[in-house]
């Protein structure tokens, strides 16, 4: 005699898996990346943003994009510790009509998205203070990644995507002359900021 438990298991195995009804729509998986195109006064820059591994930071950037809060802002700062190395910074500079609430911090130890060449990251002061200013890396910069072995604030910055087209534009911005007397970052503020004419999502063709 087959035990009752075995009969129940056999019955369960005999039930076919549920299948969608004929003609029912099948939901396509969301792509990992969201593509965004920035048109600057020096040419286009195209970014792929990682909505899966950095959902909070990506959603924050897309709010600024979709609400046109980055249209008309500038690349205003460059940090150049060495030739062809550093980062460029752009964004709202706390302009009241553009600013949105701060977001939770997503460290690189959580997202796995490092500050490699072409990475885009969100600027911050304390963790959880990031809003609408962003940096793009020129060269790998692991010092901006989270490092739990460091004392103090060791959470680094939140990278959330990469440049896929237009790094030549980023290099030109990095090489632009800075004004040594212009604040708040002396020697890092561009003498002639590079204007961002528009920022919008674009469709990725398979």
Set out the fold topology.
Layout: H1 4-14, E1 33-40, E2 43-50, H2 55-66, E3 74-82, E4 85-91, H3 108-111, E5 119-122, E6 133-138, E7 158-165, H4 167-174, E8 189-201
Antiparallel strand pairs: 1-2, 1-8, 2-7, 3-4, 3-8, 4-6, 5-6, 5-7
What does this 3D model show about the protein?
Strand 3 and strand 4 (85-91) form a beta hairpin. The protein has helices at 4-14, 55-66, 108-111, 167-174, and strands at residues 33-40, 43-50, 74-82, 85-91, 119-122, 133-138, 158-165, 189-201. The chain is globular, with a radius of gyration of 23 Å. Residues 1-17 have low confidence and may be disordered. The chain has four helices and eight strands. The termini are far apart.
Task: Offer a few descriptive terms.
single chain; 206 residues; 8-stranded antiparallel barrel; 17% helix; 31% strand
């Amino acid at each position: 005699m087959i035990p009752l438990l075995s009969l129940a298991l056999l019955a369960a195995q005999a039930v076919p898996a549920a299948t969608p009804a004929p003609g029912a729509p099948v939901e396509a998986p969301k792509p990992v990346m969201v593509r965004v195109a920035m048109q600057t006064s020096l040419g286009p820059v195209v970014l792929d943003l990682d909505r899966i591994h950095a959902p909070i930071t990506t959603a924050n950037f897309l709010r600024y994009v979709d609400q046109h809060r980055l249209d008309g802002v500038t690349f205003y700062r460059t940090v150049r510790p060495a030739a062809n190395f550093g980062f460029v910074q752009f964004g709202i500079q706390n302009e009241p009509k553009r600013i949105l609430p701060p977001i939770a911090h997503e460290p690189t130890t959580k997202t796995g998205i490092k500050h490699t060449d072409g990475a885009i990251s969100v600027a911050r002061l304390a963790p959880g203070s990031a809003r609408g200013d962003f940096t793009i890396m020129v060269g790998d910069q692991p010092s901006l990644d989270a490092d739990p072995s460091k004392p103090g604030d060791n959470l680094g910055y939140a990278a959330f995507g990469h440049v896929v087209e237009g790094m030549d534009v980023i290099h030109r911005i990095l090489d632009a002359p800075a004004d040594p007397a212009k604040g708040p970052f002396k020697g890092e503020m561009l003498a002639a900021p590079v204007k961002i004419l528009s920022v919008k999502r674009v469709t990725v063709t398979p």
